[in-house]
Design the sequence.
């Protein structure tokens, strides 16, 4: 199967995007980590000021002319680095296992690169879980630099509880 299409996500894609988000979480050994609902996904990505953008990959459903199945997605947003300016941040990137090796991932990365260039971004940032050697190799083969080894950066997070505590001045 070499026939696929990459397109911007639409509001009606939210149930399938959430399904893929949960599949990715399970693949990353965190199946219970997804707290997001379809409603939040819809409001956050398709409102007046979207917090994210999304590309989806779809393939034709076998035996159903004009019908398709969503088999991959890339969720991204734009951010700003005071040293280098605008950048595209790739939050999630996933293609279902049976559809890997067909060029879908490469086409998604091509589209993301085109979007980054068109919007004058200086680079694209993303995270890969440390044990995911196939993905790390995939990105390195395409020229990605591992900033954790190249520049020594550590990723930190304040969870909501700590945000609330700091916001209240405690």
Sequence:
């Amino acid at each position: 199967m070499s026939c696929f299409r990459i397109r911007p996500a639409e509001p009606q894609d939210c149930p399938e995007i959430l399904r893929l988000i949960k599949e990715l979480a399970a693949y990353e050994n965190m199946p219970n980590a997804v707290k997001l609902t379809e409603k939040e996904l819809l409001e956050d990505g398709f409102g007046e000021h979207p917090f994210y953008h999304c590309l989806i990959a779809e393939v034709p459903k076998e035996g159903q002319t004009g019908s398709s199945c969503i088999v991959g997605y890339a969720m991204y947003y734009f951010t700003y680095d005071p040293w280098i300016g605008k950048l595209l941040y790739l939050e999630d990137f996933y293609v279902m296992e049976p559809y890997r090796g067909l060029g879908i991932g490469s086409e998604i990365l091509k589209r993301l690169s085109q979007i980054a260039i068109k919007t004058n971004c200086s680079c694209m940032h993303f995270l890969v879980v440390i044990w995911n050697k196939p993905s790390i190799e995939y990105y390195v083969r395409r020229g990605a630099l591992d900033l954790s080894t190249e520049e020594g950066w550590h990723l930190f997070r304040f969870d909501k509880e700590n945000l609330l505590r700091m916001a209240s001045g405690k």
Observations:
- DSSP finds six helices and five strands in the chain.
- The two ends are 57 Å apart (CA to CA).
